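Moderator note: this is an archived Q&A kept for reference. The question asked for a predicted structure of one protein chain; the sequence and the answer are reproduced below.
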Amino acid sequence: MNTLAVTAIFLLRSASRALPGLAILLVTGIAMLLNSTTDALAGVPMGLVARPDSGVTIRVEQLYKDLPPMGYAPIRVYIKNGSQYTQTWKITTTHGTHGQDGRSLRSTQTLSVDSNREGEFLVLAPLLPRADAGQIYGSSANLSVQMSGYGMDESSDPWDNKGRPGTPSGSSYSRRAELPFLLLSEKYVSDSWKLLATAMPNLDGSSVEPKDWPADYRAYMGAYAVFISREDWQALRPEQRQALQQWVMQGGHLYICWPEASDAGLATLVANRTAPGAWGAGTIRAMEAKDTLAADKVRKALQPAQDPRYWSQERVNTTNSYGSSNNEEDDRAIAKDVPVTVKFGAVEGLSAPEIPRGLILLFVLAFSILVGPVNLFYLAPVSKRYRLFWTTPLISVAASIFLMALIFLSEGIGGIGNRVVATLLLPDDRKSIVIQEQASRTAVLFYPNFTLPQTGSLQQLKLSGNNTDDDGNPYSRRSSTTSSMDKSFYITNQGNTAQYSGAWFAGRALQAQWMQVMEDSRQQITLMNPAEVGDGIAPVLLSQVSPTLRQVYFRDRNGKVWNCENLGSGQKLTCKASTEQALKDYLNAAKDKFGRRLKAMYADTENNRGWFYANTGESHEQPMETLSGIRWTNTGHYFLGSVSGAAPLTASINPGAATSPASITTSGSSDASTATAGSNTRTN
């Protein structure tokens, strides 16, 4: 978008306030102006612009035409600083839920550009998960973007939902929060989406322009699957391609589409990463498509039970958008194979704080007697009424001190919590994915703020009480009190870290979260005798994992299961023969401690050949730290991943799973540059 276009938008915003009729007359001219500039076609422009006389050009664009149901909404910010000094701008995004519960999530980030330079930033607006069937939202997405700084008046603009792909512009529509969310190349929208929507009414998604595929894997967290044309894939910049591959590693499903798709053609598109078997928790597959996507193929690609929309819920509402139950498969609130309730293991043994009603009543009664009859007739009798001026304040102060002491003695400080961690190792990419699920019962909190790496993602979980879905309670509580002061979540991005404050940890509450971080890592398990294992000889494993692994199960390329114990870092051990049932029992015991997020990762990987599954011993856990004031109990740290040198012959040993002949799995390219967390900055 050139300077004239920015000036036109600024005039339109001004005219709309003073002369609404004039604003209407300007629309046609601005549209012609935008169409004359090729770079304006990428992204959906937002109405956040700099003053024409500031010497600064600012362009803010939303990269998706529709808002994902969870994760992040990607926003591109282009700034050209023509002033004589380095300038900074603050961008704030606020996402609120539809309905009456009043939850909101606010994130702030500072952008800086040197004098006479330009920069492009990828800003990720965090979203509150919305998988409840009872929530309907239309063109108002409840996401606002506010920007302030040099050369612009402080202003905000809402995210403009264009509706489901293929929806006519300006048409009335409503979005059902329980719909699966897909991302499609723009070329497939005009024809494909009408066919898909007819065959599967319970779909939702967004089209993406070729230039707009985000260069940060977190931007894809809300999507179940991505369908990208081969032309778009080949045109991606290295950082865009790496972001998609890193999303795949964490459980994403990527389909590269072109006519006459094949294994050989797919191999050339992923730098010959065609080793059979699962490399990471997700998949990249080839799909035959010319100008449209076949509805039957898309239907086969969807596995609703693994949909990320449900990861942040212990219990999923089964009523449809209109508040009534529906048993028709195409109009169900959730797919029939999605468990309505999944036990969140970390919350076991914790209970929501109960209001001590009897103690409060006793305190109020004692205080009334003390400040009333005792004060009036004993401490300040009729002849000495002047004592009321100091006895009453003293009684009030003493009662307050006593009440605070009572709270401290009964509730304590900080609280208690449980957490479980799983680390997915990807040695060929020198990456690890750490996922932690945790639950806590908080007491009195003095400083409920904490920091995490900016590359991480934190999601608040919705806990249900008594197997019912009570949306009247705060998002992460179970049978707890509510107030308008504890439903606001804040994230402040500062350099390489993000500070979390607000309702992430509220006092006297039962709360739960899951977090996910991708890190560079050299940790791995290596098979020292791969040739011998092929002949049935026991494998020798070398650990380069920091903690000692108490139990290790390894399924070799032939599908045979092996086991060893107490494998320390730098140590070699010869495994003993085990059974598939023993591994299954081990994984089931581990999954009893997991919630939906970790269960989903294990479900995607538990049948892989050439993989190991392990856990650490007590005192060897390495959890991510959040609120240090809580007394955490580590209920387990699990490791899994591909074993270096144990390339599998097949991706799965599940005899009932049909393997597509045009499919592989991948975990990304190790030589591509890593996208900056929260922003992808380019300064020229």
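Archived answer notes: The first helix runs from residue 3 to 18.
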